[in-house]
Amino acid sequence: MSVAVSDAASPAQNADPPSNLIGIRVERKLGTRIDRTPPNKVFETGDILRFQLTTSMTGYLYVVDKGTTGGIATLFPGASALEGDNRIAPGHTYLVPADGDGWFEVDGPAGFDVLYFLVSATPIRLPSAASRQPQAGGEKSKSENTLVPGMLPRCDDAVFKSRGECLDDSAGIAQLPGNAELPREIAPLAGTASRDIFLSDDGDDTTVKVTRLPLIYTFRLAHH
Fold first, then answer.
1. Helix or strand or coil: residue 27?
2. pLDDT category, 2, cuts 50, 70, 90?
3. What would the DSSP string read from start to end of 116-153?
4. CA distances (Å), 7 to each of 17, 22, 210, in order?
5. Is 137 helix (H, G, I), strand (E, B) or coil?
């Protein structure tokens, strides 16, 4: 599947500078069919998902996932990647997780996985292999966000009744509050990264407008 990405260059002599954009799409695998899904969909245990990411800018991407057990896992770059292999550039589509063909199975207790997306203009020094593994015994790292710990996804009744689809407005891409702490695996990398983002949403794809690098934001993956 190919995804068109706007070119960063503009032929108009007096045009405003183009926006730096990062687009993300959630896909679900149903047998041999691949469906686009709304980013705020509440998924079921056993669903097979992946993220597709496109960009109109050049930078370096690092993604970690804090699961509902409190375990931390690196999703991008892949486990076998060398330093610098997390470079992203216009005209390409990137799969998250980066290993294999990007598919992963939803598991763990019901709640919200929190994916942290960190984008930098320069290469990011990756953590040691030990810190890239889930924490032993499901021990939680010190991290806060706007969701109450243990909060469960809830369907929007109006949408569910009209479309038969479980959506939760607190899921999907979200700004990381300025006072929110980060998992210890990503905190040393984030530094003074901006947390300001501007979003546009066409229903299935969400686009983040980047105003300054480095930047960090979250994606809350809701599941029963």
1. strand
2. very low
3. EEEEESSPPPPPPTGGGSPPGGGPPPS---SSPTT---
4. 12, 12, 15
5. helix
The top-scoring range by mean pLDDT among 62-71, 124-133, 139-148 is 62-71
**Residue carrying the six token digits 């794809």:** 205
Between 5 and 170, the more confident residue is 170
CA distance 212 to 195: 9
Q: Which tokens in the block code for residue 62?
A: 């690092």
pLDDT, tens digit, 9 for 90 and up, residues 136-150: 333 333 333 445 556
| Strand (E) or helix (H) holding 125 | none
3-class DSSP state of 134: coil
Q: Between β-strands 205-210 and 72-76, what pairing exists: parallel, antiparallel or unpaired?
A: unpaired
At CB < 8 A and 24+ separation, what contacts does 6-9 make? 6/56, 6/90, 7/56, 7/90, 7/91, 8/56, 8/57, 8/90
- The full set of domain ranges for the chain reads 20-126+152-223
Which DSSP category does 39 fall into? T
Q: Encoding tokens for residue 160?
A: 């569910």
Residues in CB range of 15: below 8 A, 6 or more apart:
none
Residue 144, both tokens: 């806060």
